[in-house]
Design goal:
The strands form eight sheets. Strands 1, 2, 3, 5, 6, 8, 10 and 12 form an eight-stranded mixed beta sheet that branches. This protein has a six-stranded mixed beta sheet with strand order 22-23-24-26-29-32, with no helix packed on it. A five-stranded mixed beta sheet has the order 14-15-16-18-20, with no helix packed on it. The chain is of the alpha/beta class. It has helices at residues 5-41, 415-440; strands at residues 49-53, 56-60, 64-70, 76-78, 82-85, 88-95, 108-110, 117-118, 131-133, 140-141, 155-157, 163-164, 178-180, 187-190, 193-196, 201-204, 213-215, 222-223, 236-239, 245-246, 259-262, 269-272, 275-278, 283-286, 293-296, 302-303, 308-309, 315-318, 323-326, 331-332, 339-342, 347-350, 355-357, 363-368, 380-382, 384-388. A hairpin with a 2-residue loop joins strand 5 and strand 6 (88-95). Among the domains are: 51-175, Ribonuclease Inhibitor (Leucine-rich repeat, LRR (right-handed beta-alpha superhelix)), CATH 3.80.10; 292-401. It is elongated. 33% of the residues are buried.
Length: 441
């Protein structure tokens, strides 16, 4: 019996047509997937026109323009109030998040009076920026907007500003004062210190203010996060009885601060030998970073987060009879720390990550403690080595704290996920096509 050649050709043709349809469908699917990836990548400005003028990149989706980036080389920047994009003049209203981030060659920026919004991280780590002109059109200064501008020498907040974000001027180590227009209805300044309008909240004491001592006004009821962080000249702070709230990070890394003084009639806080406690003296809230050696009394029950932070602190002694716990980050970034002494009969519990130091070099701390006592490994965060014994090694070097900086997002958090998912689908489509081609032949 012979096979029918015509029948065989019909089967082959049928399979070929089916394979062709499948291949066509897979090709269309792959193209659609790639198209979706492109749209996802530019989801913020999917219909936007962009242009770069004098190194500044602008983007627009309507009659206004956003500053989105800078690729120029000029140290002095003047942002225009309008730009021509796609043959249409657009008013510049926004400096987008991260627009000038880490542009380390910029020394001065003039912002036009058309801009109303300065985005998060907009000028973060512009380490050569000395001056910036903020016009009275700006209403919103976002989180970390000028963070790490280490040469910024002055800042004036106009009367139009209604919001200043978290840590907007943190790590501005050359900033001696912050000036607020007297007509501003939300913020105020006194002697260069930034407050809310009613002066009930102390927001920021400038890092480069040269006064060795400071007395907080009697109107203040709260001291904000990182309010005195990194102050380079301040040696003493006097807190009035009116203050009822002090953030745990208020005095971080104030390297010369040696004394925090509280009035006896303060209802929530107390001080002894320059250290800040709660009213009963059971909770240590802050040890000034300019103190080299501390002996904690046996009345202390808790060492709060960031109670010890940075500075020149070399040794801590927990007194005999103590019964306390060291909270997470209780000893925070104390890069000069050499010795921890736990006297006989002292009961000290170290919580997880109680001692943290994120420098890359090994930091050796000697521990003098009763026989059998050990600080658990879980209490250490970073490259820390504990050596048990009473005599520190004089040859040990003290690593320096290089406080890690925050970094901003690019405001497109979904794109990496889109790439991964979409790319995977495209690969599957192409693999399917290859499979059918192989089957065909």
């Amino acid at each position: 019996m012979y096979a029918d050649p015509a029948r065989g050709r019909g089967s082959i043709l049928s399979r070929s047509r089916t394979s062709g349809k499948v291949l066509t469908a897979l090709a269309v699917f792959a193209l659609l997937t790639v198209g979706c990836l492109i749209l996802m990548n530019d989801s913020d400005y999917s219909d936007a026109d962009t242009v770069t003028i004098d190194g500044i990149t602008y983007s627009s989706t309507d009659t206004t323009a956003h500053v989105t980036g800078y690729e120029g080389s000029s140290p002095s920047i003047t942002i225009p109030s309008s730009v021509n994009i796609a043959t249409t003049d657009r008013t510049v209203t926004t400096i987008d998040p991260n627009a000038f981030k880490q542009c380390t060659t910029i020394t001065s920026v003039i912002i036009p009076d058309s801009v109303t919004y300065i985005g998060a991280y907009a000028f973060m780590n512009c380490t050569s920026l000395v001056s910036v002109t903020i016009p009275d059109s700006v209403t919103y200064i976002s989180d970390y907007a000028f963070y790490g501008c280490t040469k910024l020498a002055s800042i004036t907040i106009p009367d139009s500003v209604t919001f200043i974000g978290l840590y907007a001027f943190r790590e501005c180590s050359s900033l001696p004062s912050i000036t607020v227009d007297v007509s501003n209805t939300n913020y105020s300044s006194e002697n260069g210190v930034l407050f809310d309008k009613s002066k009930t909240q102390l927001i920021q004491y400038p890092a480069a203010k040269t006064d060795p001592s400071y007395t907080i006004p009697n109107s203040v009821t709260s001291i904000g996060n990182n309010a005195f962080r990194g102050c380079t000249a301040l040696t003493s702070v006097t807190i009035p009885d009116s203050v009822t709230t002090i953030a745990s990070t208020a005095f971080l890394f104030a390297e010369k601060l040696r004394s925090i003084d509280i009035g006896q009639d303060n209802p929530n806080y107390s001080s002894a030998k320059g250290l800040l406690y709660n009213k009963t003296g059971e909770d240590l809230i802050a040890c000034p970073a300019g103190i080299e050696s501390v002996i904690l009394p046996d009345t202390v029950k808790n060492v709060s987060a960031c109670a010890f932070s940075g500075g020149i602190l070399k040794d801590i002694t927990f007194s005999s009879g103590s019964d306390l716990q060291v909270k997470t980050n209780g000893v925070y970034e104390c890069t000069s720390m050499e010795m921890i002494t736990i006297e006989d009969s002292a009961k000290v519990m170290f919580n997880a990550n109680a001692i943290s130091d994120r420098v890359s070099e090994k930091h050796t701390i000697r521990v003098s403690a009763p026989e059998g006592f050990e600080i658990p490994e879980s209490a250490l965060l970073g490259n820390i080595e504990l050596v048990y014994g009473s005599s520190p090694d004089p040859g040990d070097d003290d690593p320096k704290d290089d406080d890690p900086k925050d970094s901003g997002s690019d405001d497109k958090p979904g794109f990496p996920i889109a790439v991964a998912v979409g790319g995977g689908l495209a690969v599957l489509a192409l693999a399917g096509a290859a499979f059918f081609l192989i089957r065909r032949h």
